[in-house]
Design a protein that fits this description.
heterodimer, A: alpha/beta, six-stranded mixed β-sheet, 7 helices, 10 strands, globular, B: alpha+beta, two-stranded antiparallel ribbon
């Protein structure tokens, strides 16, 4: 059973009377422990696809199976729970809470879990996570006191605090210079390799996409190639 | 998300923008502060008002004998001769709701000093308790007559300001003698000015003397009506007997009689009736109780069987009491209206800033939703933020209001009274204002679409 299976997903937005199709019949699978890039030019629908994959949005039609569960039928609260427990999100613009310490930023998702570990335990876990990403001496720094690379590392730590099996990264290097980009991408590779975390990365940059095992090309709301593992998609290096 | 975490998160969020949070709560601070200050000053004022109205005689009860009748002819109110000084003492002793009671006899006669004369509106024979019942306060000059003066029927009197003006032309009357009905009374005290009463009668046109002196030396006979200004001259000798039983201390003129003698030959003791008794209730609220207690005591003393009509009647100044209560109600309602307006204004301020805050933190809301916050988590977070704002504002408002009223009482010497009810209400109201006006922004936040919220610039 694949971790993710999309069957003929369609998504269109309503602009007045006009329905604008963004995704037109997307089918793909992602196996557990894979690292995949969604690549395409802007407006190709890759972000919409990731939102649907991340349960932030619902498809207009089609089926989305995650861990053998039909996710597009879940209620908003059930999807929130799924996002909290099973998914991690890393965004292009980091999206850290301003004027809030790195530690609390990382601990934040714990508060929304069904079994909140308690204030002390939450802080301990967050500190542990930050230390893993080399930010042990930056626990009380606010985002404005951190560099871009450090901020993205805090964001990654936050995404992983609930130990999700799946990590979504939406243009994670878009706001970073090439040196820190490398650093962050190597971090993803390491997570994938050592922890077996499945990574789905959205990018428009072929150089970034090369850091993943498989690249799914999207154009105009349809998958051009790489939809299935080993199914004719070219392997990344 | 636990309540504790929610409250902490809310507090953190507010601390991120302390200046704005402070300015936002200012509306509530001022609102609650105004309510507390007004309540405290208002309570103090109405207590003072109550005292003032009480000094106008709101607590005073007048007990007068009923009407006497003979052969189908009734003689009008106060003509029965059943009320005695002992009744007055019994009322004071046996009625807990009665603060003070004084027997009273009235006279109307000419007061002469040197070449000048004057007929005062009131000549009252009474005891010193009268001064307390009528709230005369400190005498302007001299001292009041004593219980011993009453006991002995001493010829001393206290004059009102009008008499001082008319008879003495400004010079001090203390120690001088005025003549009432050709009896010389030494002036021992002068009453302070009180002005006209509510009926327009000059309350300073008054002479007070021991009731024994007025009754037995001035009006002369207990059976003459008090209104007559030409009563016959009385002799004190015939009243000694009554007085010695009334006020022990003097030696009896007669040898003591045995119980058997007492039963066989009842002594025809002269009956010392008085014109009325004035009593004061302990407070305006206790007037009803006082009336009931006095009625019970007098019925028992006058041996009135149940079913028989009272031989006395008790009057209170219901009108004044009503005025008092309506004034207080009006004041309370007025304060309530002002309080409501200021709290609504404060609440609108809270709502406004919370809406701004929701818009400003759209990305944060999107992020929180992305990492697993449910709509209800977001709703609760913003609601708690609004309530925390309001509660902090309420607490500051209580301090401000209490401090303000303390300042007013210190600087302006206004009476204030701390009102725990007002404080509890303020806390409750500010929390409900937070919930009421914080709900819409919080609901709006919880309904945001996470994708759009994340993309919001």
């Amino acid at each position: 059973m694949p971790l993710i299976e999309l069957r003929d997903i369609c998504k269109s937005y309503q602009l007045g009377d006009l329905a604008v199709p963004v995704l037109r019949g997307v089918s793909l699978t992602v196996e557990r422990g894979e690292s995949v890039s969604l690549m395409g030019s802007s407006g190709s629908g890759k972000s919409t696809l990731m939102n649907i994959l991340g349960c932030l949005d619902r498809p207009t039609s089609g089926e989305y199976w995650f861990e053998g569960q039909e996710v597009s039928l879940l209620s908003a609260d059930e999807r929130a729970r799924l996002r909290n427990q099973r998914f991690g999100f890393v965004f292009q613009s980091f999206n850290l809470l301003p004027r809030t310490s790195a530690l609390e930023n990382v601990a934040m998702p714990l508060a929304y879990g069904a079994d909140h570990p308690g204030e002390h335990e939450a802080r301990k876990r967050a500190a542990e996570m930050l230390r893993r990403f080399g930010l042990g001496d930056r626990l009380d720094h606010e985002p404005s006191q951190l560099s871009g690379g450090q901020q993205q590392r805090v964001a990654i730590a936050r995404a992983l605090i609930n130990r999700p099996p799946l990590l979504f990264a939406d243009e994670p290097t878009g706001n970073l210079d090439s040196r820190t980009s490398e650093e962050v991408l190597r971090m993803f590779e390491q997570l994938h390799r050592e922890e077996g975390i499945t990574i789905i990365m959205v990018t428009h940059d072929a150089k970034v996409a090369r850091h993943t095992q498989r690249v799914i090309h999207i154009e105009d709301g349809q998958i051009m190639d790489g939809a299935f593992a080993g199914g004719g998609g070219e392997e990344g290096s | 998300m636990s309540v504790y975490t929610t409250a902490r998160t809310a507090f953190r969020a507010l601390c991120r923008n302390p200046m704005r949070a402070m300015l936002t709560t200012l509306g509530i601070v001022i609102g609650v502060g105004a309510v507390i200050a007004m309540m405290e000053i208002g309570t103090g004022s109405s207590a003072a008002l109550e005292k003032t109205i009480a000094s106008m005689g709101a607590n005073v009860l007048v007990i007068r004998p009923g009407a006497a009748s003979s052969g189908g002819v009734t003689f009008g109110a106060g003509s029965a001769t059943t009320l005695t000084p002992e009744d007055s003492e019994a009322i004071l002793r046996e009625c807990p709701a009665v603060k003070n009671a004084a027997p009273m006899v009235r006279a109307r006669t000419q007061v002469v000093y040197g070449g000048r004369n004057w007929i005062p509106t009131y000549i009252y024979g009474t005891t010193v308790a009268y001064l307390d019942i009528q709230n005369w306060g400190e005498l302007a000059e001299g001292e009041p007559f004593s219980d011993r003066d009453v006991m002995n029927g001493n010829k001393v009197c206290i004059l009102g300001q009008t008499l001082v003006r008319e008879l003495f032309e400004g010079e001090s009357p203390i120690g001088k003698e005025v003549r009432l009905q050709n009896v010389a009374f030494r002036v021992v005290g002068v009453l302070p000015a009180k002005g006209a009463n509510m009926m327009g009668l000059d309350q300073d046109d008054i002479v007070l003397a021991p009731w024994t002196s007025i009754k037995y030396r001035v009006t002369g006979s207990s059976l003459t009506t008090s209104q007559s200004s030409t009563g016959s001259k009385g002799s004190t000798s015939e009243t000694v007997n009554t007085l010695s039983t009334l006020y022990p201390g003097g030696e009896s003129l007669y040898p003591e009689r045995s119980a058997l003698q007492e039963a066989n030959q009842p002594m025809p003791v002269r009956f010392a009736n008085i014109d009325q008794i004035m009593a004061s209730a302990r407070s305006a609220a206790e007037i009803e109780t006082a009336i009931d207690q006095i009625t019970a005591v007098l019925r028992e003393r006058h041996r009135i069987r149940s079913g028989e009509a009272d031989d006395f009647n008790i009057r209170d100044l219901t009108e004044v009491t009503k005025m008092l209560s309506s004034t207080t109600t009006l004041m309370t309602n007025l304060l309530l209206a002002v309080a409501m307006i200021s709290l609504v204004v404060g609440g609108v301020g809270i709502m406004n800033i919370m809406l701004v805050s929701v818009t400003e933190r759209t990305r944060e809301i999107g992020l929180r939703m992305a990492v697993g916050a449910r709509g209800s988590d977001i709703l609760r977070q913003f609601l708690v933020e609004a309530v925390v704002l309001c509660l902090v504002g309420g607490a500051l408002g209580i301090l401000l209001g209490h401090g303000g009223s303390m300042l007013v009482s210190l600087v302006l010497r206004w009476p204030v009274a701390t009102s725990p009810v007002a404080i509890a209400t303020a806390v409750l109201v500010s929390a409900s204002v937070g919930i009421l006006f914080g709900f819409y922004p919080a609901w709006k936040a919880s309904k945001l679409d996470p994708i759009e919220a994340l993309r919001y610039e």
